[in-house]
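This section describes the prediction task in plain terms. A model, or a person checking by hand, is given the sequence of a single protein chain and must write out its three-dimensional structure as a string of tokens. No templates, partner chains or ligands are provided. The sample shown here is typical of the held-out split.
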Amino acid sequence: MQEVRNYYEMLGVDKNAPSNEIKKAYRTLAIKYHPDRNLGNKAAEEKFKDIVEAYEVLSDQTRRAQYDQSLSRKNFINKAGSFSNFGRHNRSETKGATAERSRVRVDSQDYRPGTTKRERVVRSRPQRRDIEAKLTLSLDEAYRGGKRKIRLEDGRSLEVDMPAGMFNGQRIRLKGQGIEEGDLYLKITVARHPFFEIQGENIYCQVPVTPTEAILGSAIEVPTIDGLVKVSVPNGVRSGQRLRLANKGYFGKLGNRGDQLVEIQIVAPQEISPEEQELYEKLRELEQFNPRKNLIKNL
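The expected answer:
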């Protein structure tokens, strides 16, 4: 026979502590010593069982009053059946209330302390929960959409039919693909493209032209997100001037398409043939245009 175990000391509260203080102490200790957080730690497991046993008694006002009387009389009871009388006392009336008061949340799971048989801990069913995953797409994938296989952190592999015209920062909802029939939200990141730059609904790019093409004008092929398109470069075009290709941009949030802005860059050749050299020399003799004329006057 052993002396009555001091449940107040187990929870670290005073004998006259109110119910809310006892509940708070229990929740703190139950989270700290829960077996799921102390895998393989037998001491923590025993501590958790003691905490559950103590709260099972002290959370019920009737059983607590009887325990206080027994504690004051210094009764001796068997440890293996510690306060089994209180476990049986009015069980049908207090079961629902005790279970509700003693519910603890640990790592998004609900746990309910067991009966006064300390080895029993009942795990409740996991709750429905939404989750989020990140998905990085190339500009072409984001623009065209289509089927895409993704792997989640929990090991699941899904084939997702992605919509066309996705944009950076967009969230795609997959109903029922979360935890316990919750939803999965895919946060979209559109990778940077080496040639195109998305500017809202418009697509921006730079296209080089030769001095001859810029002076005389020409028809050149310009890449777009839909493929190559022939564009007429006007004669006398300036470096940095922008040409607008209507409806060749990206999708807007309302489904409309923006434009493609083509910035002209005049590029001089690094090497020229002897024939070209001769022609450029003749052109220089005939050339009257001086782009620095006004600059010189203002000095």
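For orientation: The first helix runs from residue 7 to 11.
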